[in-house]
Amino acid sequence: MDVGMIRIVALCGSLRSDSLNRRALLVARAWTPPDCAIALWEGLAGLPPFTPDLDRADEPAPAPVEDFRREVGAADGLLIACPEYAHGIPGAFKNALDWLVGDTAFPGKPVALMNVAPRASHAQAQLREVLTTMSATIVDEACCTSAFPRPDEPESFSAFERAVRDALAACAAFLRRAP
To answer: Any idea where the domains of the chain sit in the sequence?
Structure first.
């Protein structure tokens, strides 16, 4: 990898504008190592439902899909924070991942998972399964599970910050070693 700035694209699996996952990704931007930058991708709601009819080699995909693929392809790595709905990945986020299945830039893409709801283990397991099937490189040492801090529990903030900083440092170290 080039020795310049490491570019991490953050993907939030929630459509809620004030979701804990989105807030965690925004906070994480302030805690990245100095040679890293996190860009939060905001286009989840604009992706059309996946269908192979719109994903053909002889025609460009819809513009929001092309933009998404370009963002992911240009990233050195991905940071994903995804909620759990009904013991699974939210449909809109699974749809986004489906649009990446045929993208040639995705296989081998380093991915770190951030879980801000420790009891939400089903979606995390599903994300690992789906991303592994898609040939992502899950960077285990850069994955973290830590409850998003509650305003009435200030001591939880330092534990969350430590977990996220450690995960981001591990992610950056992995990306620095990447070819």
So the answer is: 6-53+60-177
Q: Smallest Cα–Cα separation from 49: which of 97, 121, 109, 116?
A: 97
Q: Quickly name the fold that domain 6-53+60-177 has.
A: Rossmann fold (3.40.50)
| Mean pLDDT of the chain, nearest integer | 94
Residue whose tokens read 């990898």: 1
The model's confidence at residue 35, banded by pLDDT at 50, 70 and 90, is very high
For residue 164, which amino acid is it? V
Number of separate helices (H) and strands (E) present in the chain: 5, 6
Bridge partners for 115 per DSSP: 145
Spatial separation of the C-alpha atoms in residues 55 and 73, rounded to whole Å: 17
Strand partners, 133: none
- pLDDT reported for residue 1: 44
Mean pLDDT of all residues in 105-125: 95
Q: At what angle do helices 91-100 and 121-133 cross, to 10 degrees?
A: 10
pTM: 0.94
The whole-angstrom separation of Cα 56 and Cα 62 is 11
3 confidence band (pLDDT: 50, 70, 90): low
Q: Using an 8 Å Cβ cutoff, are 66 and 100 in contact?
A: no
Dihedral-angle region of residue 51 (phi above 0 means left; psi in -120 to 50 means alpha; beta otherwise):
beta
